[in-house]
Design a protein that fits this description.
The complex is a heterotrimer of chains A (404), B (279) and C (399). With 404 residues, chain A is an alpha+beta fold. Chain A has 11 helices and 20 strands. The two termini of chain A are 39 Å apart. Helices cover 72% and strands 1% of the residues of chain B. Chain B has 12 helices and 2 strands; from the N terminus they run αααααααααααββα. In chain B, helix 8 crosses helix 9. The C terminus of chain B is likely disordered. Chain C has 2 domains: 223 residues, 3-Layer(aba) Sandwich (Rossmann fold), CATH 3.40.50.300; 152 residues, RNA polymerase II/Efflux pump adaptor protein, barrel-sandwich hybrid domain (OB fold (Dihydrolipoamide Acetyltransferase, E2P), Beta Barrel), CATH 2.40.50.100. In chain C, helix 2 crosses helix 3, helix 2 packs parallel to helix 4 and helix 3 packs across helix 4. With 399 residues, chain C is α+β, with helices and mostly antiparallel strands. In chain C, the strands form 4 sheets. A 6-stranded mixed β-sheet of chain C has the order 6-7-8-3-9-10, sandwiched between helices. Chain C has a 5-stranded antiparallel β-sheet with strand order 13-12-11-14-20. In chain C, strands 15-19-16-17-18 form a 5-stranded antiparallel β-sheet. Classes of the chains: A alpha+beta (404), B mainly alpha (279), C alpha+beta (399). Chains A and C meet through helix 5, helix 6, helix 7, helix 10 and helix 11 of A and helix 5, helix 6, helix 7, helix 10 and helix 11 of C.
Chain lengths: 404, 279, 399
């Protein structure tokens, strides 16, 4: 059991005469038994962070503590953490059972105890039928499960999982995600999961730590990251398809107070987003005039002829296209504001089975919206899109931080 | 681990490494100071660890005999000639084994070729002498040693090149075919550049073997052609060995491989980092 | 120039991979072959490219038999799953490679390479080596190399499967914009159904031995010819439920009933009516065992808020009720009681696995909703969205 605390952690690598600042002033507290994902694009510093936690990399400055005890100077094997790697790294000459038992053998456990634990782990990971096979005969997903099992079987204080699913086929991934989540629930131990895949991170973790360019951008639950992204980077990185961003200019609809409108910049574009009064006030407080507006594709809904289909989808599909009806709090707020509307021309209509991604153009501005698969909007068609002003995110144009 | 015991282990490790370094470097040190002494000083019962009088002219003296310089040139010709021949044959054979194992005779033939490297050379010393003696160019020629050393170098080159070719992705060649290159052009455009770092390493191994070889050279050549290895023991004065000249000459003979290594190391290192993708 | 035609193509090693495969890709058509990994998609491309020899059958381009030609005489361009970029050459030289092979004038090569690079937004990288660029950039370089060749046939092997979801999305759009690929016959293989649905003029779904269904994206997804096709397309995968068909009463109504694997554990099973539209096709089966395919997005989860809204007649939900009312006689849809087994809120959807009377059902939901293990929920199925497959052959019984 372990609470993992990172305090002002820095990592600086010397590289060809220069230095690379791989991790900058990282502060992160992982509660005992918590499942935290480190998420970020490649080169964001998440792997360096992980390697420092495990002890494979020296800490340039700052402190890493397990249960309040500083571990900076401890060797990896003395930190009582187990790690599973992106590559499976199984011993090819051992059977699955022997691979699983190996860490226990190293610990000097008696044979009977080893067998019991291997059996327990095999049951948890659905490996019972292949215990006698050699790793070479297994599929990628099975190998990955064995590799996980070998990390888990030692029952260390914390588990570190490094991109363990990046080599697993998409349709097997779902099953693995569920397995891993169940294992975490059963074992109740601290887990740190490193990945560049937001679906994995959001599905697995209690909290997700988003990193970019060596810095921690935001730590939060799925809903926090999704609805209150700290900055443009997080808003862009979390969500698929990515959030639409527009450079906008704030103009009041009436005089001074009251609702405000965000005019998208660009002479050939007539996109305007409405803003609730409360948020408009927050924007005015900044004194700035230019902002970055963001709206997720799932929060733009086809209106007009398509409307019935779309609303039906909200209830019947209960899925992706349903953004506007989100959350109980959202519903309450929604009651006070009316729906906004924009128009655009369809440039690509991508049918994906469960949904349609529309790529739209208004003047030189290109953005995307999600629609139900029944949508027949074709290339070149002009469509109207409705949105809930609550779902328009506004960021500072200079710092890119969320304002409202 | 506590701090003090950590320091102790570290200290012991450093002491051991220091000792190891001393053991490795001492022969070189001895060679250099011997080359700079005069003959009398090298034969003292109590050896001196620093020359009493410096004799850098030893390095000039070894070339008083004109043929000694020629021996270095002969060695160079033989080593280079053999290296080129080993590389050409080894590359072609290695490619065949890597890409068309069935047509090329399979793993067994490849292993048989490598196994040629395993028998003790002395066993074939005399038969080889008679064999080469029957050729038009005889034993005492550059060509005889160039061909003879193939017995040792070609299996090595073939085997290593086979491994390098296996590591070079076949898909790259296929991509070249689809670009419109014939197999031969694709080989030169894509495959060969990929194994070039490997080839350079193989070339160095072959060259150094041929440069250093003594046993066969001593029997085969000596009149028309001399290699530097058979010249070294000739630095004597009556029954007295002229250690200083021997050491000076061997130091000079060490220079070509050293230069070769320094020049080619760049390419070897580049080869190792080629295709490394940051994760 | 012309269509790509494959006739009776056979290839096998220890076991048959392709068995008498026939299909045609018209000139200008973007044809996508989708199938699980290891099913022989790459083998098919390699046979067309000339990198493998077929055991039997012919490959024709524009009516010309090219089966006996070596790859370098075929005028076919291919991208490899691994990209197969030459690591020792710059991005520029990689792209220029097919032109150099044809001994095209230097100035012309420079212009063509720069044009392709600009189109794919890699013109800043021309001096770099493949080892120094990102995965997406490598993919674009490989694509540029095939595009400059301006061949008679494009073969694209999983070009974007190994990239992040984000970049995949971007590159899918890029493929939509490349007119060059719509000029000649293009054959694109992938294991990702979303890519296939998004890009293809026509899709061929590959199963063991060959193509099991060929058709437009909507046909394939909405009217799969077999259970295999239905299972391969869709994320999360389609629910497959074994059920019994029963004729009830004299009005020709048909019901299905599923007991589920957990039937022994006290589950009471599921019984639902068959939609009018399906009745004709199914009624002559009498009492029969079938496999039902129910897409997770067609299983709506009525949480507290939503079911309450439906009762009180909130604006948006009355629309639903009205629309749904058309589907069933007597109004109102059957509501199923279920227990939450597992719930994952992903980025754009939430995935719920619930136990409905012993039958496990996966549903997709709004990701902002939360469900807890053991919670009781109500599920609603629309009978007309259910697919019926033969229990043994897996063939679609309705379409």
């Amino acid at each position: 059991m372990a609470r993992v605390t990172l305090t002002d952690v820095n990592k600086i690598y010397p590289s060809r005469g220069e230095t690379v600042h791989a991790v900058k002033d990282l502060n992160l507290e992982i509660e005992d038994g918590e499942f935290v994902a480190l998420l970020g694009p490649s080169g964001c510093g998440k792997t360096s962070t992980l390697r420092m936690i495990v002890g494979l990399e020296a800490i340039t400055s700052g402190e890493i503590a397990f249960d309040g005890r500083r571990v900076n100077e401890l060797d990896p094997q003395r930190r009582n953490v187990a790690m599973a790697f992106e590559t499976y790294a199984l011993y090819p000459s051992f059977t699955v059972a022997e691979n699983l038992a190996f860490p226990l053998q190293v610990m000097g456990l008696a044979e009977a105890e080893r067998t019991a634990k291997v059996r327990e782990m095999a049951a948890m990971l659905r490996l019972e039928d292949i215990l006698d096979q050699s790793p070479g005969a297994l599929s990628g997903g099975q190998q990955q499960r064995v590799s996980l099992g070998r990390a888990l079987i030692r029952e260390p204080a914390a588990f570190i999982l490094d991109e363990v699913m990046s080599h697993i086929d998409a349709h097997l991934k779902f099953r693995m995600l569920f397995d891993l989540k169940r294992i975490h629930r059963d074992l109740g131990r601290t887990m740190i999961y490193v990945t560049h895949d937001q679906v994995e991170a959001l599905a697995l973790a209690d909290r997700v730590a988003v990193m970019s360019q060596a810095e921690l951008r935001q730590v939060g639950t799925r809903n926090e990251l999704y609805h209150r992204p700290a900055d443009v980077f997080v808003a862009d990185f979390i969500g698929e398809p990515p959030t639409n961003f527009f450079p906008v200019c704030l103009r009041a609809a009436g005089n001074g107070a009251g609702p405000a409108r965000l005019h998208v910049e660009g002479e050939d574009s007539d996109l305007v987003f409405d803003l609730a009064p409360a948020r408009a006030a927050r924007l005015r407080e900044t004194g700035a005039e230019r902002f970055i507006a963001g709206i997720r594709p799932q929060n733009l809904h086809l209106a007009g002829a398509e409307a019935n289909v779309d609303v039906a989808t909200v209830a019947r599909w209960g899925a992706a296209a349903a953004g506007a009806g989100a959350g109980a709090g959202g519903a309450e707020e929604r009651a006070g504001s009316r729906t906004g509307e924009v128009t655009a021309e369809v440039t690509i209509s991508e049918y994906l089975g469960e949904r349609v991604i529309l790529t739209l153009r208004n003047g030189s501005r290109v953005f995307r919206a999600l629609a139900s698969p029944e949508t027949r909007a074709a290339r070149g068609e002009r469509v109207r899109l409705r949105y809930d002003p609550q779902n328009v995110m506004v960021f500072s144009a200079s710092t890119e931080a969320l304002i409202a | 681990m506590s701090d003090s015991s950590y320091r102790l282990v570290r200290g012991l490790l450093l002491a051991f490494l220091g000792l190891w370094l001393l053991l490795t470097l001492f022969p070189f040190y001895w060679q250099i100071i011997t080359a700079l002494k005069d003959a009398a000083e090298t034969n003292r019962t109590i050896p001196t660890f620093w020359p009493e009088v410096w004799h850098p002219e030893n390095f000039k003296l070894v070339f008083a005999e004109r043929s000694n310089l020629q021996a270095l040139i002969d060695s160079f010709v033989i080593a280079t000639g053999n290296t080129l021949a080993s590389l050409v044959l080894g590359t072609l054979a290695g490619y065949a084994f890597a890409r068309f194992p069935r047509q090329a005779g399979g793993e067994n033939l490849a292993f048989w070729i490598l196994s040629n490297r395993m028998f003790p050379p002395v066993a074939v010393l005399v038969p080889m002498f008679f064999l080469f003696d029957a050729t038009p160019w005889g034993t005492d020629s550059h060509l005889s040693l160039i061909i003879l050393y193939l017995v040792f170098n070609m299996p090595l080159a073939t085997w290593l090149m086979m491994v390098f070719f296996r590591d070079a992705p076949r898909e790259l060649e296929e991509a070249a075919y689809l670009d419109g290159y014939t197999p031969i052009k694709a080989f030169f455009k894509v495959t060969l550049p990929l194994v070039l770092p490997g080839m350079i390493s193989v070339a160095m191994l072959c060259w150094i073997f041929a440069w250093n070889e003594y046993l066969f050279a001593n029997l085969f050549v000596g009149t028309a052609v001399k290699t530097f290895t058979i010249v070294i023991p000739t630095f004597t004065h009556g029954s007295q060995t002229l250690w200083n000249l021997q050491m000076a000459f061997s130091l000079i003979a060490m220079l070509p491989p050293l230069v070769l290594f320094i020049v080619l190391r760049r390419y070897m290192v580049r080869g190792l980092s080629l295709g490394v993708v940051k994760g | 120039m012309g269509e790509l035609r494959v006739e009776g193509l056979c290839k096998g090693w220890d076991f048959p991979v392709l068995d008498r495969l026939d299909f045609t890709v018209a000139e200008g058509e973007f044809f996508v072959v989708v199938g699980p990994s290891g099913i022989g998609k790459t083998t098919l491309l390699r046979l067309i490219a000339g990198l493998e020899r077929p055991d039997a059958g012919r490959v024709l381009v524009g009516g010309r038999d090219i089966t006996g030609l070596p790859p370098y005489r075929r005028n076919v361009a291919m991208t490899f799953e691994s990209y197969a970029l030459y690591p020792h050459l710059s991005v520029f030289e990689n792209i220029a490679s097919p032109l150099r092979a044809r001994k095209i004038a230097r100035a012309e090569i420079g212009a063509a390479v720069r044009q392709a690079a600009a189109m794919l937004r890699i013109d800043e990288l021309l001096e770099r080596r493949p080892g120094e660029i990102s995965g997406g950039q490598k993919q674009r370089t490989a694509l540029a190399r095939t595009l400059v060749a301006r061949p008679e046939v494009y073969l694209l092997d999983e070009p974007i499967s190994h990239l992040d979801a984000r970049i995949r999305h971007e590159l899918r759009q890029q493929f939509h914009g490349l007119e060059e690929l719509r000029r000649v016959a293009t054959l694109y293989v992938t294991h990702d159904y979303a890519e296939a649905l998004s890009l293809a003029d026509r899709i061929g779904v590959m199963g063991a031995g060959g193509l099991v269904q060929v058709g437009a994206a909507r046909d394939i997804f909405e009217r799969p010819a077999s259970l295999f096709v239905a299972q391969h397309l869709g994320q999360p995968s389609i629910n497959v439920v074994e059920a019994e068909l029963h004729q009830t009463g004299g009005d020709g109504a048909v019901h299905w009933a599923a007991t589920g694997a957990a039937g022994a554990a006290g589950g009471k099973g599921l019984t639902l009516p068959v939609a009018d539209a399906h009745r004709a096709a199914l009624s002559n089966l009498g009492t029969a065992t079938v496999m039902l395919g129910i897409r997770p997005q067609f299983v709506s989860v009525l949480g507290n808020a939503e079911s309450a809204a439906a009762r009180t007649g909130d604006g948006s939900c009355t629309d639903v009720a009205a629309r749904d009312g058309r589907g069933t006689a007597g109004g109102g849809l059957p509501v199923i009681d279920a227990t939450v087994e597992l719930y994952e809120p992903l980025g754009a959807t939430g995935v719920l696995i619930a136990d409905a009377g012993g039958v496990p059902l996966t549903a997709t939901t709004d990701p902002d909703r939360t469900f807890h293990y053991g919670e009781r929920v109500k599920l609603r199925l629309r009978p007309e969205t259910v697919l019926y497959f033969d229990a043994r052959s897996g063939a679609n019984l309705v379409d």
